[in-house]
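Action item from last week, closing it out:
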Amino acid sequence: MVNNIPITNIDIENEIFLIKILNPSISEKSLSNIALRNLIDDALKNEEIKKNNIQVLNRPIKKKYKNFLSKLNQKSLPEAIKKNIYSKIKTEVSWTKLILKKFSRNSYVNINEIEEKIKKIDLSSKNNEDQFDTKDKMIKSEKNKNINTSSNTYLNKLKNEALIKIY
């Protein structure tokens, strides 16, 4: 139970099945622990998404879902696994929206540091447009790092505050 949200043995089995598909090299010993951690994270994320009334459109979720399924080399997946995949994609899209809403203003990037890094890279052979693209990519990368850090910190805070019971 995670804050009175049940995680069943069937949920764990479905998560293990999905993990095996995505990461066949993971040892059997660690599968159940990884699955349980993933399910706890998902439960906490979904609870916070509901608490903050985050709504996402179905179209981008369906697009990501179809794209994800097309990349899997699985002929036929059980319906429960397909629902699990769809649910995970919806959770991640919603969580991203929540994190951006809460922390995007805090994703400060020091432009001077970026420009110093660019100076250290030999861009003299590139034209101004290429230099601009490099700078733009570096800024986006730094913002993403800041957002990911905020996301991980926030999720860890939720874990610390959560009531988790294992039966």
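Closing note: The longest helix spans residues 128-161.
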